[in-house]
Amino acid sequence: MKNLTPAELAVVSAVDRDHIAADLQALVRIPSVTGDETAVQSEAALRMADAGLEVAQVNADPAELAGDPEFPGIEVPRTVLPVVAGRVGSGGGRRVIIAGHVDVVAPGDPDQWTEEPFGGEIRDGLLYGRGSCDMKGGVVAGLAALRAIVATETELDGEAELVTVPSEEDGGAGMLAAIRAGHVADMAVITEPTRLAIVTAQAGAITFELTVTGRNAHAAYRREGISALEKFRLIHDALLDNEQQRN
User: Fold this and answer.
1) Could you give the CA distance from residue 108 to residue 245 in angstroms, rounded to a whole number?
2) Is 103 one of the catalytic residues?
3) Is 68 one of the catalytic residues?
4) Are 163 and 84 in contact (CB under 8 A)?
5) Rounded to two decimals, what is the model's pTM?
6) Could you tell me where the DSSP H helices lie in the chain?
7) Active-site option among 103, 159, 161, 170
8) Where are the domains of the chain?
9) CB-CB contact of 6 with 154 (8 Å)
């Protein structure tokens, strides 16, 4: 790694651990299960503004977005896709986006938790709560970086933007909404938890619906019917073969 410049050292030194803990607790304590991200996005916008970022909010209409040829589909019924962005920089030069999702999967059986799923309790230096790792921690890390840039009055040659999106856990429509709203850049850092490994490629996914038809028959005349499951098995084998070829 190259030696840091004085300006870079100043930004690193200005990262505020107390702010990180407070920001993360606040976000984790809002139960933003996929499909219900409006409240947590409002909190994210407030904290971006508090950090001195120029904040923009978009409430995309999923019905309109569904007509986009790149629309990945959604699994959870919703009426809005709330996107929040906080920017710092001159507006010229290159732009980098730091991106993360604020939705989380449901907490499941509460008896399996040692802490409240949305309690955000800190014990022995660890914060407990649904989404604290995947990926509100990453969102807050991005916010901490931009907050430090603002606090040190560091002038960027370009601009940096923190973008928080909904609907990652059910396909990624939130990120598409952000892109269509103009939140694009020359490069992006996705702060998913990777144990700090830098990952430069992603497998992606293909999402589709498939209908396989059959024909009903009484069990006594089973061979006069057509089993949709048996037909689907051929398709399933072909999909597995396709996956292996792609990989």
Assistant:
1) 36
2) yes
3) no
4) yes
5) 0.87
6) 6-13, 17-28, 38-50, 62-65, 137-151, 173-180, 228-246
7) 103
8) 6-190, 210-247
9) no
| Amino acid of residue 222 | R
d(CA 79, CA 60): 9
Q: Buried (b) or exposed (e) across 205-232, using 16+ Cβ within 10 A?
A: eeeeeeeeeeeeeeeeeeeeeeeeeeee
Among 159, 168, 169, 170, the one annotated catalytic = 168
User: What is the per-residue pLDDT for 1?
Assistant: 55
Contact between 12 and 85 under an 8 Å Cβ cutoff? The reply is: no
Question: Crossing angle, helix 137-151 and helix 38-50, to 10 degrees?
Answer: 20
The whole-angstrom separation of Cα 193 and Cα 106 is 18
pLDDT, position 92: 80
CATH class label, 6-190: alpha beta
Nearest to 162, CA basis, from 193, 139, 184: 139
pLDDT average per 10 residues of sequence, the chain (247 residues) = 86 95 98 97 98 97 95 92 96 92 96 94 95 97 98 95 96 96 96 93 79 94 93 96 91
The strand ranges marked E within 124-230 are 126-128, 159-165, 187-190
What lies within 8 Å, CB to CB, of 70 at 6+ separation is 176
Amino acid in position 13: S
